Amino acid sequence: MSQEALKVRTMAEVAAAGESVEVLFWVGCAGSFDQRAQKITKAFVKILNHAGVSFAVLGEEESCTGDPARRAGNEFLFQMMALQNIQTFDSYGVKKIVTACPHCFNMLKNEYPELGGNYEVLHHTAFLQSLIDEGRLKLKDGGKFKGQRITFHDSCYLGRANGIYEAPRELIRKLDAELVEMKRCKSSGLCCGAGGAQMWKEDEPGNKRINIERSEEALGTRPGVIASACPFCMTMLSDGVKNKEKEEEVAVKDVAELIAEAEDL
Amino acid sequence: MIVQQIVFIVLLLATAFCFTKRIAFIRGNILSGRAEKLNDQPARRWKYMALYALGQKKMFKRIVPAVFHFMIYSGFIIINLEIAEIMLDGILGTHRLFVSVLGPGLYGTFISIFEVLAVLVILACLVFLARRWVLRLKRFFGREMTRWPKLDATLILVIETVLMTFFLSMNTADSLLQDMGYGHYHEAGFFLVSDSLKTLFSSLDAGTLVFIERFGWWAHIVGVFAFTIYITYSKHLHIFLAFPNAWYTRFKSSGKISNMPEVAREVKAMFDPSYQPEENAATPDRFGAKDVTDLSWKSIMDAYSCTECGRCTSECPANLTGKLLSPRKIMMDTRDRSDELGYFIKKSGGEKKEDGKSLLHDYISMEELDACTTCQACVEACPVSISPLDIIIELRRYLAMEESKVPSEWALMFGNIENNGAPWQFSPSDRLNWKDEA
């Protein structure tokens, strides 16, 4: 991997220079702070840099969308975060947003419009696919993942909530990889266990952790890579694969990381 | 004949009376929920109902039960055409009235179709009983599947089988009596199934055959009357409610949580002191739901539409991993509580509205609610357009905003979001640190 410095500007810097950008990259809390998810953020930025996309981030001005608060029942906190973020978007005249987090994506796309925040919102897999379709991102033939067995885990908030099943799969196919499906996939996909604010608390008593159940299913496809498109699924599946002591043989990677690696970015 | 006619008319009116009363009771329970406007886009709603209720689109995700269920469903709808004739015969004291309208050729064809469907219904009911009690499919069991739900499911299948048997034995006896040219048993055409069943009864004399025919006729129709009332106490109510429940479906992404305008107004006023809420903006007594009456009327109709098939629970990640949460239980609890409260109010003559119990805590525990990942697998799985998730979220809202009863880690997470703008304890100024780290 090359170590070229990442070219990232904030919306404040762009506005101060009197410029504008094509798209706002909403990094999300996981993408900003979680060490594993930061790698996804960097991989996505490398692709954006490589494709010459003009974008900016909010940096310090970004705040939680309010997803875990709302799903845990705290509507007040959610409304506060939403209103604050909408004010920030509107102060920069934001029109188009891309994010690598399906939870943020769902909030911005489906739950902000009712509160007055109307933007074109894209998940990074759909955005990457559009870059390829428009010829702005060209993938090499026969990259690193050629012929590898890759299984894709559907994030609930990307799949069931927003019907995005094909964009991430198309990207995996473009790597000349062999896409293998789990039995529970697409609209029947099994949750990783993180959604609905479960990420922030211990499980209720039961006989198994959800992420172990899902990781076992993913490992059952004998993959070289388990691909995901959500930073929370990433945490859950990585933990599951480690629990099964398979982390040496099976990598858990975000679709953006697969593309960045295949392109030697 | 006149005595039979009177008895029939009395039974018919009694059934209509009891059924109407039951429907009015259930309707009242449903309408005791909060208002929610769900009658926009009528064209889209009719289309959705045609596809998901009439066409049973979601059922076909699991092909084996779908095929057998379709046999019972089409049997139920088509054989009910025969009920029209039975009703008229009963009231007018006639016998197979439609023969004179259709002629024996066409009439026989219709009866033959009904008979084939009756055989398919019996077959499907037996397969379903076997799936339940021989194969013991996992989704038919579980904590909420106590004595009554299991008995209810069995009764429905047994009653349907018995009703179809009466129908077939009545036709077989009738066919033999026609052959004999006995009494008023006039030529009514060729009945496909009962024709081949004739050998069973061939040694019987005319008197016994008349008894079998009359007994089959009365047992069938009285059974249908009784079953009609039974359905209103049973999970089998889905045969009616699946249709309106589909029509009134919420056209939104299953991952989108409904907005709370009353909270939005308060927060807007906090941000902007000059903000004036629109007039007539109603604020409910409590945030979220503690009892069934705090739920949207659609959620209560969801509960009465539930047929306890367990597809939701069989796909719920929390339930699959041994947690208490079961989306089917959420629906069954909502229905049971709605019934309980409805009976209480009725008993008090409508004077008392609260019995000191509630859906939350008395029926559904925090442990169940806290385990939900909001993955929407239950919503996706339901063949009759039910959303257990909406009820879970409303109950969580009450817990969080009215009772402040949330897991301690969630309280910390709320604090972090409020203070740092992130669910973890990181400073906003560190948001871009990833940029410079190798």
Protein architecture, described:
The complex is a heterodimer of chains A (265) and B (438). Chain A is of the alpha/beta class and 265 residues long. Chain A is 42% helix and 11% strand. In chain A, strands 2-1-3-4 form a four-stranded parallel sheet. A four-stranded parallel sheet of chain A has the order 6-5-7-8, with helices on both faces. In chain A, 55% of the residues are buried. The mean pLDDT of chain A is 96. Chain B is mostly helical and 438 residues long. Chain B contains 18 helices and no strands. Chain B is elongated and about 95 Å long. The model of chain B has no long low-confidence stretch (mean pLDDT 95). At the A-B interface, α2, α3, α4, α5 and α6 of A face α9, α12, α16, α17 and α18 of B.
Q: How would you sum up the major sheet of chain B?
A: none
What percent of the residues of chain A sit in helical stretches (DSSP H or I)?
A: 40-55%
- Assign the CATH architecture of the largest domain in chain A: 3-Layer(aba) Sandwich
Q: So how many helices of chain A?
A: 11
Strand content of chain B: under 5%
The helix/strand class of chain B is mainly alpha
Low-confidence stretches of chain B: none
Order of helices and strands of chain B: HHHHHHHHHHHHHHHHHH
The protein's oligomeric status is: heterodimer
Instruction: Work out the helix count of chain B.
Output: 18
Q: How confident is the prediction overall: mean pLDDT of chain B? A: 95
User: Roughly how many Å apart are the termini of chain A?
Assistant: 6 Å
Briefly, what CATH class of the largest domain in chain A?
Alpha Beta
Model regions low in confidence, pLDDT < 50 over at least 5 residues of chain A: none
Radius of gyration of chain B: 28 Å
Number of beta-strand segments of chain B = 0
Task: Using a beta-carbon cutoff below 8 angstroms, give the protein chain pair with the largest interface and the number of residues from each chain.
Answer: A-B, 72 and 69 residues
Give the H and E element order of chain A. HEHHEHHEHEHEHEHEHEH
Structural class of chain A: alpha/beta
CATH topology description of the largest domain in chain A: Rossmann fold
How much of the polypeptide of chain A forms β-strand, as a percent range? 5-15%
